[in-house]
Amino acid sequence: MLTDYIAKMIEEMLNEGNGTLELQRNEMANRLGCVPSQISYVISSRFTPERGYVIESRRGGGGCIRIVRKQMSRNEYMMHFFCAIGESIDEGETIAYLKNLAGNGLISERELHIAAAATSNAALASIPPDRRNTVRAQIFKQIILSMMAV
Amino acid sequence: MLTDYIAKMIEEMLNEGNGTLELQRNEMANRLGCVPSQISYVISSRFTPERGYVIESRRGGGGCIRIVRKQMSRNEYMMHFFCAIGESIDEGETIAYLKNLAGNGLISERELHIAAAATSNAALASIPPDRRNTVRAQIFKQIILSMMAV
DNA sequence: GCATCTTTGACCTTCCTTGACCTTACAACC
DNA sequence: GGTTGTAAGGTCAAGGAAGGTCAAAGATGC
Predict the structure, then answer these.
(1) Whether residue A136 has pLDDT greater than 70
(2) Of the CATH numbers 3.30.930.10, 3.30.360.10, 2.40.40.20, 3.30.56.130, which one belongs to the domain with range B2-69?
(3) Interatomic distance A12 CA / C6 C1' (Å)
(4) For the whole prediction, is pTM greater than 0.70?
């Protein structure tokens, strides 16, 4: 299967580059004789933030895709949180989670405040109250993922 | 890519000049073998006010372009950002702002990622697209405030 | 046989590069 | 003091070079 082959290839290149890699989508697709979007597919299905990768890209002339592998260590802990959040979460519970993370030294005090602000009722004031906890859960999940990544 | 090269060049010249620089567009374009408007493009895409630069220019004989890297106090800087956000902001612009803050050492790389995640389209996926930028602005503002506080 | 994962291709968005044309400043000349 | 010539920089639109997205068709596994 092409996907596996490409994934293995990227994995190897990551090893060679000490966990960092920049590639050109078109160039690579050309070399492998596949369509460019295949590369996109592999990256989006295999090198996800959940699995500890950070992806950045730039379009236009000289564009490229950057893949960075982050060491998993405290990430399992984070993953636990991520799953625990569920579909919906209120402000108080969010803060409780954050305090837990801070208490365990997984995030700094400042990070706690930033995350609390981003998920506060103040930030979500314009969202109908009955939808607020759902949106908060989504934002919080993205935050947890970002904390795992770096 | 030419753009990156020129940007790097200007950056260096700014460092040499303690954050100030005067250049002649035609002369520089000539030296680099590119069209003059390329210089304009680099300046307008890379050395923007959002990223903390002030641009002045003079036309006519002996004309020049003046680039100054602003340094403001932390809170001035933050306040500047807070005001600049306005009612609505898209994902890309948000990231540009955050990168500026990180570039100036006002927030850490991790904080950048957290804030970017909290304001990402992914986090706001369940919000109708036409309202997303408004909600993002509100979340971002709360984040900026939290950054000023600690 | 249904669900899930792959593969492909058409179309979109972003970014870079170039060139034609516009505006402004200054200076020389009447 | 106007007029005009020339030397800057400003603007904008077109074209090209990437990567992004998404839906449909094809495999594959249970």
Answers:
(1) yes
(2) 3.30.56.130
(3) 22
(4) no
